[in-house]
UniProtKB/TrEMBL annotation:
Organism of origin: Sphingopyxis panaciterrulae
EC number: 2.6.1.16
Cited PROSITE patterns: GATASE_TYPE_2 (PS51278), SIS (PS51464)
Species lineage: Bacteria, Pseudomonadati, Pseudomonadota, Alphaproteobacteria, Sphingomonadales
Subunit structure: Homodimer.
Pfam families named in the record: GATase_6, SIS
Assigned keywords, A-Z: Aminotransferase, Cytoplasm, Glutamine amidotransferase, Repeat, Transferase
InterPro entries recorded: GATase_2_dom, GFAT, GFAT_N, GlmS/AgaS_SIS, GlmS/FrlB_SIS, Ntn_hydrolases_N, SIS_dom, SIS_dom_sf
Family matches, as CDD domains: GFAT (cd00714), SIS_GlmS_GlmD_1 (cd05008), SIS_GlmS_GlmD_2 (cd05009)
Name recorded for this polypeptide: Glutamine--fructose-6-phosphate aminotransferase [isomerizing]
Catalyzed reaction equations: D-fructose 6-phosphate + L-glutamine = D-glucosamine 6-phosphate + L-glutamate
Compartment(s): Cytoplasm
Gene Ontology MF annotations: carbohydrate derivative binding; glutamine-fructose-6-phosphate transaminase (isomerizing) activity
Domain Glutamine amidotransferase type-2: 2-217
SIS domain location: 283-422, 455-597
């Protein structure tokens, strides 16, 4: 949601804080701000909009000092203006916050009644005032934070600087991630290891309720009972280079093109190519007793879960319920004792999904997590951890995380089917053979990049676009529509192609491009019939199929995109590529901000 960073350093920190924000800008880009401590004063610089505006502000009004905090914001409470930008400060205290203080209204009213004056509409500012009150009453920074944290409800990661204490920063986390970085005579706080990548790779992940006092050469961590605790210091392995665009114009483009590599990388942890068998990373994990699966996720990860529902039911004959995480808890779902709850997330920090995970855990479900960030909250709370190895995904539109999730889910479905006695060894070998083909097929799909770029002008002027697919390719139609919406701002909807005739076909006219996903296979004929119903009403079709499919049904389409001929199992991975590329090139043609589309953030850590 928002990104926060703090440095207690040997040298000037403002530029390094901004550099850290640059690596976290994918978390939010409504405003940015920095506050340093210098000669007994808090030096605060803020700007609305992208980080570039803060850079200009700092060029005009530098923020000297060797201690500081900084923030990049995705607005929740209050418009994205400079006065609502973090850090929020009083005369004594400045702080940055990621999360939501849910009880900020009563706290704010009580503070106003005690004579405090607010300068923003944010929930965060109450925390600055509460801590400031304590400091003004003579408490030390530690005592002040210890007194205030129990008053806060909701989710927070905080980094706090004190006017009179240029020798320390305090951090705290509950529900939002926060890490401590260990440098040489310097110490850091950050929302993630990525933010600190060029500064240090020695990272401690704070646990729920932890708070921490950092100085230049020391770190003291306390748990929610204020007992001093130790947290492991690990080597993050995230290098600064992992978050560079390289020769690509956008991170999204780079990440689309990384898919053959990262899918192969991910599959190598889930299959044994020589033996042609499936092998989960936690092979000893007992799935034999699982009779029902509940899948919960958001956005693109949810669509990966929808594809997996087809696989779990087809191969393992295990019934699957699937929900978007934001709805799941509130419908009070009936969970079968002994069931498996499966959560899918790129970030592992999405608040809705994390809350659903904790709900299922409290109900005694076994928790399986397919996640790309191995140090995330979801990864740490899983019984069965199923990592994807997509590497850092920076573009707000998820691409490579999706295909890696599909690779893991296909392997999991095959493993479950084997355990349930629904798959023979020969069938297992066949599935593995198809999975092994996926990276090459992804490469072949990427070879159509230029052609897709050339047809972007057919879609770019549209006000509405429809995507159609059947079976496991129906979720891909939803994913295609989501990709187009989020980066090109064109209204798009995905439908199960057979559902068109029940209403949406009324929308069809020559101004509405209809993207049809129709790989050869058992559902091809049916999809093509639905496509013809659209054509008969003047609909302009973009047909995505293989050579056989295009030869059979391509005539009369406005455009066609040829995919390699693949087994239906891996079709959802391969057909993800043209829908990603189409959305990407349409967005480029429209001149939108591909990697940082309006109103969005990469990691949504509020409900
Ligand atoms: O990190 P997660 O996979 O949990 O994130 C879920 C969604 O927020 C995410 O997939 C979102 O829909 C993307 N912007 C889609 O491209």
């Amino acid at each position: 949601m928002c990104g926060i960073i703090g440095i207690i350093g040997k040298d000037q920190v403002a530029d390094r804080l901004v550099d850290g924000l640059r690596r976290m800008e994918y978390r939010g880009y409504d405003s940015a701000g920095v506050c340093t401590v210098k000669d007994g004063a808090l030096v605060r610089r803020r700007a609305e909009g992208k980080l570039a505006n803060l850079v200009k502000e700092l060029a005009a009004h530098p923020a000297p000092g060797t201690v500081g905090i900084a923030h990049t914001r995705w607005a929740t409470h209050g418009a994205p203006t400079t006065s609502n930008a973090h850090p929020h400060a009083t005369g004594e205290v400045a702080l940055v916050h990621n999360g939501i203080i849910e009880n900020f209204r009563p706290l704010r009213e009580a503070l106003i009644a005690r004579g405090r004056r607010f300068e923003s509409e944010t929930d965060t500012e109450v925390v600055a005032h509460l801590i400031s009150e304590q400091v003004e009453a003579g408490k030390s920074p530690q005592e002040a934070v210890e007194a205030v944290l129990p008053q806060l409800r909701g989710a927070f990661a905080l980094a706090i600087a004190f006017r009179q204490h240029p020798d320390l920063l305090i951090g705290a986390r509950l529900g939002s991630p926060l890490v401590v970085g260990y440098g040489e005579g310097e110490t850091y706080l950050g929302s993630d290891a990525l933010a600190l990548a060029p500064l240090t790779q020695r990272i401690a992940y704070l646990e729920e309720g932890d708070w921490v006092v950092i100085t230049r050469d020391g770190v003291r961590i306390f748990d929610r009972e204020n007992k001093e605790v130790e947290r492991d210091v690990t080597t993050s392995g995230v290098t600064a280079a992992a978050v560079e665009k390289g020769p690509y114009r956008h991170f999204m483009q780079k990440e689309i093109f990384e898919q053959p590599t990262v899918v192969a990388q991910t599959l190598s942890s889930y299959i044994r190519p020589l033996e042609q068998t499936v092998a989960l990373p936690q092979m000893d994990f007992d799935l034999d007793g699982i009779d029902r699966i509940t899948i919960v996720a958001c956005g693109t990860s949810f669509y990966a879960g929808m594809v997996a529902k087809y696989w779990f039911e087809t191969f393992a004959r295990v019934p699957v319920d699937i929900d978007v995480a934001s709805e799941f808890r509130y419908r009070d779902p009936v969970l079968q004792p002994g069931g498996l709850a499966l959560f899918i997330s790129q970030s592992g920090e999405t608040a809705d999904t994390l809350a659903a995970l904790r709900h299922c855990k409290a109900q005694g479900q076994t928790i399986a997590v397919v996640v790309n960030v191995p140090t995330s909250s979801m990864a740490r709370e899983a019984d069965l951890l199923l990592p994807t190895h997509a590497g850092p995904e920076i573009g707000v539109a998820s691409t490579k995380a999706f295909t890696c999730q599909l690779a893991v889910l296909a392997a999991l479905a095959a493993h479950l089917a084997l355990r349930k006695g629904k798959l023979s060894a020969a069938e297992e070998r066949e599935i593995v053979r198809h999975l092994i083909e996926a990276p090459a097929a992804l490469n072949a799909a990427l070879a159509h990049d230029e052609e897709i770029a050339a047809m972007a002008h057919l879609v770019a002027p549209a006000r509405d676009v429809l995507y159609l697919g059947r079976g496991p390719d129906y979720p891909l139609a939803l994913e295609g529509a989501l990709k187009l919406k989020e980066i090109s701002y064109i209204h798009a909807e995905g439908y199960a192609s057979g559902e068109m005739k029940h209403g949406p076909i009324a929308l069809i006219d020559e101004a509405v491009p209809v993207i049809v996903l129709a790989p050869s296979g058992p559902l091809f004929e049916k999809t093509v019939s639905n496509m013809q119903e659209v054509m008969a009403r003047g609909g302009k079709i973009v047909l995505i199929s293989d050579a056989e499919g295009l030869a059979e049904a391509g005539e009369g389409s406005m455009a066609t995109i040829e995919m390699p001929r693949v087994h239906p199992l891996i079709a959802p991975l391969v057909y993800a590529v043209p829908v990603q590329l189409l959305a990407y090139h349409v967005a480029v043609a429209k001149g939108t901000d591909v990697d940082q589309p309006r109103n969005l953030a990469k990691s949504v850590t509020v409900e």
